Structures are given as structure tokens and as C-alpha cells.
């Protein structure tokens, strides 16, 4: 691809939503044929959406649309960057009934917070990647704890472990499952966050939540 063509492509901020129908359909077919999904959900959050903030590592984003049950997807908002790439992802997720909140710690964070409060008030769940958008890998940022404090919603560690996958040479070692892999969706126990927390309590909770998410996370050897 020439530099001129690349530049022209990058200038497109939004494609027609219907374009994403075909890759979404392909993903559904591929996952149904080549992968098995096991769900471990002791608190039955999949069956009983209750307005929680789910934390998923950035390198497992590819698994979300297909590993999440349809009922859970319909009651889930994903926090997506306000960038151009975030727009692409947002339009793609619509084909899986996952709505999005646009914003991050660096751009339009206030808009995203207001959207999260509204979603949680309506008993919907909000999914965020606490180590995104630039890492460090597997380190939860304080913003996730602050959002829980301001919304009153508990934080829930969520992971999707793959029995075998390719790991890209990106900051998060983004994972792509290999054919025949077993995907295990684990939804951990909710962790309540008090309102008006001080810096010391904030850091203690951040560490506690990070350890809880790491405890259910595994990478293939």
C-alpha cells in the first residue's frame, strides 16, 4: 500500500456501519467452528445483569464479542477510546449488540463517566480495559477505582483465558486464539468501592483489584 493510499485511508474517520457486518459474520462463523467456550460465573452475572463495572485486560478484547453470552452483550456497554480507531471498534461492536461509551482517561473522560452512570442506573454493565490504552500491561490504573467510587457500582474482575493463542509483539501482547483453542470466560466476585475515598484507600483498593484480576488470569505457555 502506497504512502498516499495509507494517508487517505487514515483520514477516513468513519465508515458506513454496514461494512462491519461481513467481518462480524466471519468472526461468528470462525468462533463457532473452531473454538469452545466455558463460562465460570459463580454470581450469575451473565443471567442477572445488575449494573457492575467489569475489568478486562486489553489483550483479551478480541474475545469479548463472541465469548460473552448474547444476553450479557445486550446489557453491556464497552468503554471505547474517543479516537478514530475507537470509532471503528464502536461500529464493529454494534453488530454484536454491544453499545459503547466514548472516552478515556485522556480524552472526553467526563462524557464517558456520565454515560457510565446512566448505564449503571439502568442495570446495564460497563466493561473497561483498566490497563489500556497504552499500558503497562496487566497494571490497573486508578481511573477504574475512581469510576466505581463515583458511580456506586462494584468492580468485577473478568478474564477470558485461551488454552492456546498467538501473542503479538505489542505492548500488551495482544492475543489471537489458535484453531481448536478452549476459551474460558471467568467472571469473578464483585468488589465494592466506597465513595469519597482518599489517596491511600484508593491505592490499596487498586492493588486489591489488580491482584483479584491477576488471580483469575492465565497465559498459555
Give the SSE map:
Elements: H1 3-10, H2 21-34, E1 36-40, E2 53-55, H3 64-67, H4 70-74, E3 76-80, H5 84-93, E4 99-102, H6 109-121, E5 125-128, H7 142-151, E6 155-162, E7 165-167, E8 175-177, E9 182-187, H8 199-215
Helix pairs in contact: 7-8
Please describe what this structure looks like.
By secondary structure, the chain is an alpha/beta fold. It has helices at 3-10, 21-34, 64-67, 70-74, 84-93, 109-121, 142-151, 199-215; strands spanning 36-40, 53-55, 76-80, 99-102, 125-128, 155-162, 165-167, 175-177, 182-187. 37% of the residues lie in helices and 19% in strands. Helix 5 (84-93) links the parallel strand 3 and strand 4 (99-102). Helix 7 (142-151) crosses helix 8 (199-215). The longest helix is centred in the last third of the chain and has 17 residues, at 199-215. The protein is globular.
Figure out the total of helices: 8
Basic shape = globular
The percent range for strand residues is 15-25%
Q: Could you name the ranges where pLDDT drops below 50 across 5 or more consecutive residues?
A: none
- Spatially, the strands of the biggest sheet line up as 1-9-6-2-5-3-4
Helical percentage: 25-40%
Features:
221 residues; alpha/beta; seven-stranded mixed beta sheet; two-stranded antiparallel ribbon; 8 helices
Amino acid at each position: 500500500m502506497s504512502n498516499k493510499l495509507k494517508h487517505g485511508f487514515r483520514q477516513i474517520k468513519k465508515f458506513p456501519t454496514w461494512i462491519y457486518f461481513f467481518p462480524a459474520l466471519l468472526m461468528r462463523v470462525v468462533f463457532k467452528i473452531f473454538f469452545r467456550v466455558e463460562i465460570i460465573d459463580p454470581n450469575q452475572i451473565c443471567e442477572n445483569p445488575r449494573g457492575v463495572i467489569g475489568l478486562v485486560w486489553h489483550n483479551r478484547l478480541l474475545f469479548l464479542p463472541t465469548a460473552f453470552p448474547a444476553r450479557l452483550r445486550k446489557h453491556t456497554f464497552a468503554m471505547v477510546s474517543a479516537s478514530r480507531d475507537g470509532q471503528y471498534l464502536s461500529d464493529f461492536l454494534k453488530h454484536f449488540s454491544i453499545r459503547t461509551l466514548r472516552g478515556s482517561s485522556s480524552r472526553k473522560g467526563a462524557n464517558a463517566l456520565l454515560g457510565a452512570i446512566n448505564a449503571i442506573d439502568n442495570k446495564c454493565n460497563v466493561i473497561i480495559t483498566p490497563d489500556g490504552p497504552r499500558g503497562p500491561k496487566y497494571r490497573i490504573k486508578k481511573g477504574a477505582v475512581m469510576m466505581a467510587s463515583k458511580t456506586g457500582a462494584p468492580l468485577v474482575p473478568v478474564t477470558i483465558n485461551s488454552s492456546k493463542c498467538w501473542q503479538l509483539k505489542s505492548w500488551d501482547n495482544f492475543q489471537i486464539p489458535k484453531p481448536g483453542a478452549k476459551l474460558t470466560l471467568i467472571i469473578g466476585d464483585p468488589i465494592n468501592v466506597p465513595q469519597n475515598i482518599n489517596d491511600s484507600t484508593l491505592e490499596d483498593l487498586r492493588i486489591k483489584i489488580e491482584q483479584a484480576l491477576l488471580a483469575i488470569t492465565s497465559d498459555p505457555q
